[in-house]
Batch of 3 targets.
Target 1
Amino acid sequence: MENASRAQQRLRDRGYDIAVDGDFGPVSHAALISYVGRKRSISRLRFALGGAMALEFPKVGIDRPLRLAHALGQQTAETGGFSSLVESLNYSVAGLRATFSRSRINDADVQRLGRKAGEGPLPVDRQRQIANIVYGGSFGRSNLGNTQEGDGWRYRGRGVKQLTGRYNYTTHAAELNLPIVEHPELLEDPLQGVRAACHFWDSRECNALADQDDLVALTRRINGGTNGLAQRRDGMERAKVILV
C-alpha cells in the first residue's frame, strides 16, 4: 500500500503500538480498523480481522487508500465498529420502527417485539421473530431469496459485509466453495467473513465507485439503500485521516 509508513505513524500518533516499517500487514490493519471503529484497543476479533484483511483485500484490489477507506467505512457500520460478525436484532421499539418500514413490520409487531424502556437485551426468540418478519414475507422472497420458514433468522447478516438472505448465501457458497447454506455460522469466522465480503465487493465492482469517492452510490450498491449512511461516512472519513 502506498504511503504505508505514513499511515502507520499516524496510527502510532493516536496511541496504537505498531511498528513503522512500511509493511502494512495484519497488525497495521488491526490498528486501522480499531481506529475507524472508534475502539481504543485491538481486541482479539479485530486482530484476527486484521490478519484476514491483510491477506484477502489485495486479492480484490482493496489496497489503495481511497478503496480501503470506503471498504472500511462500509464495514464498520455493518459490524458495530468491527465488534461482531453476526447481526444483532436487539432493537428497541424506536430503533426497530426507525430501521424498517411499515411494509416490512407493522406497528403492532414493533410494539410487541421491540425492547421496551428498562428492559434488558431481547431474548433470542424475540430477535428470531423480528428477523423472520423483516427478512421474510414478500420482501424476503423477492429481495433475499428467503423462501422457507425461518430463513430470515437462519440467513441474517454475517461477516464484515453482513451477507444477508438465502440467495446471497447460496451464490457465495458456490463462489467460495464453502457450505454456508447448510452452515451459515461459518461466516462468523473472521477469515471466511472477510473472504465473503471481498467476493461481494469484487462481484459488484465496488472499486470503481470507491475510486470516484462516491459514498452514496457505493452504499446503495452494497446496502440496497442508504441505511446507516452517517455511520458509513464517519468510518470512511476516519479512515481517510490515516490513509489519504
Target 2
Amino acid sequence: MPVLNHPSAPSYNYHFNKISDSVLMDGKIRDSCKNFNYIFILFTNRSGSNLLASCISSSNNFNTPAEFLNHDEVEKALEIDPSLRTVGDYFSAIALNDNVDGTFCAKLSCDHLFVLCASGVMAQIVNKSTFVLIERSDKIDQAMSLILAVKRNIWSACKERPETIAETHNVEVQDIIDVCYSIVDQNNILESFMIDSMASSLKVLYEDLVVNPISCLDRISEKIGKPIPYVARNVAMKKQADIGKKVNKTKLISEVRNSLLTRKQQT
C-alpha cells in the first residue's frame, strides 16, 4: 500500500484532522470507481497547478481538476448528502459525478495525498493513476507569491492585482526563507511518494508549461495513453507573478538568496 514515507509527511495533516472530525477514515470505494483512470496533479501553492488544470480540461474531454479534499468542500458535500459517512463514500461520489468517460482528474497537495493514503483510498486506485507533479523553478518568486496570496486571500493568478510597494516592503526575509524551505520539503514528499508507489508519474515545470503547454500535455498524454486536446481560447494564460524580476524587490531577493546560500554552505 502506498504511504508517505518522507519524515515530514505527518506535519501536513490539517485537512486530515478536519475531515476525520466529520467522516470515518474508511477508504473503501465503490467497485465502479476502481475501474476509472485517474490523473492527479501534485502541487504546492502558487506553482501553476490551476493553469495546468485549465489546460487539461480546456477541450472538455476531461473534468477540471479541483481540490476536492479541502475540508470545507467535504463538509459542504456532507450537508447536501448526509449518507456520505466515510472518506470512501465521499471519494466515490465525487469521482462518479465528475469523471468524463471513465477518467477523473483532481489536484492533490501533500495534505490531500495524506488523506487518501491514510484512509486506504489510494491503495485501491494507485495502479490506475497517473501523477503529474508541477513545480516552479524559482522558489523565491513562488514563496513571495504565496505570501502575498495569503495576505490578500486571492489564490488564482487570474484574479490577482499588481502588488503595491507597501505590501512587498512588509514581507520579511525570514518569512520568504521559511516558505522556500516548506515548498522544497513538500516537493520532496511528493517526489518520494511517486517513487515509493512505483506509479505512472512525471514532473512538469511551470515555466515550461507557460512557454509550451501543448508539449507538456503531450507528455501527460503519453503517460496515460489518452490524448489531451488543448484549446487555447479556453485557458487564461496569465503567468504567476515574476516578483523577483521587479526592480523594487531586487534588494530583498538578493538578501534571501544570500541567506539561503549561506545556510546551504553550512550544512
Target 3
Amino acid sequence: MMTSIKTKFQKLRLASIIFFIISCLAINPAIASPTNPAASTIYQQRTVHSPDGTGKFYMSREIAKVMGHQGAMWLERPSRENEEKPNLIVDALDLKPTDVVADIGAGTGYLSFRLAPRVPEGKVLSVDIQPEMLDIINFLKQENQINNVEPILGRENSPNLPPESVDLAIMVDAYHEFSYPREMMLGIVKALKPNGRVVLVEYRGENPFVLIKGLHKMTQKQVRKEMSAVDLQWLETKSILPQQHIMVFEKQNNSR
C-alpha cells in the first residue's frame, strides 16, 4: 500500500514538472524557438564591450550602435561628396536600366536618389527600419518629382522584400549596425533574383588611419566570413574610394 502511494506521488511530481516546463515554453516563445537568436549560439551578449557598441557579438564582431534619425543631417553633410565619392559607388555597380535595386539602410535616401537615374525602367527600393527616415525620403521624392524610388519599412530582422524581386542589394556604411545581421542577410538573399548581387560599402577596418570609430569600420576578411555564412560568394573588391571598400558578392543558385 505504501509503495503504491509512493509511486503515485512520484508520477504526480513528474507530471507537475512536465506541466511547468510546457507552461514556461508557452509563456516565453523565445525559449521554445530554436530560430530565436537569444536562444541560440548565433549571438553572444557581453557585459564588457565598447561604448560605441551594443554589447551584442556576431561571429566575434561587436555590433555597432545604430545612428538614429536624429543624425539625418550627418548623412546629408556637404563634405560627404568628397569623403565618400558616391558617384564612384554608383558607377561601380554596372547597373542596367531595368534593374531593381534595394538600398538597405537607406537613411535619408542619399544613395537612393543617385541610383534612381541609372535605372529609369527599373526602380530603387529604399529600405529602412526608421519611419522618420522614410518620411524624409517621401518628402524628397515628391520635392524632386522622382517616381522610381519606393520607400519600404523594414524590420530589425527582415528587409520586408518579396522573394526573387531584386537584382542588386547595396548597403553603404549600414551593415555593421544591423541588430540581426544573419537574419537580415538571409532575407536579402531570399529577395535576390538568381545570381543577384550584394554590395557592401564599408570603411576599411584594416586601416588605422581611416578616422572612423572602430566598430563603424569592417575588414574584408570579416565581411567575407559573414557573407559566406549565408551562402554568398565573393566576386571582387573594388578599391576606388578614398576610405572605403566596395565588396561585391553573388547569390548562389542553390541559396535558400
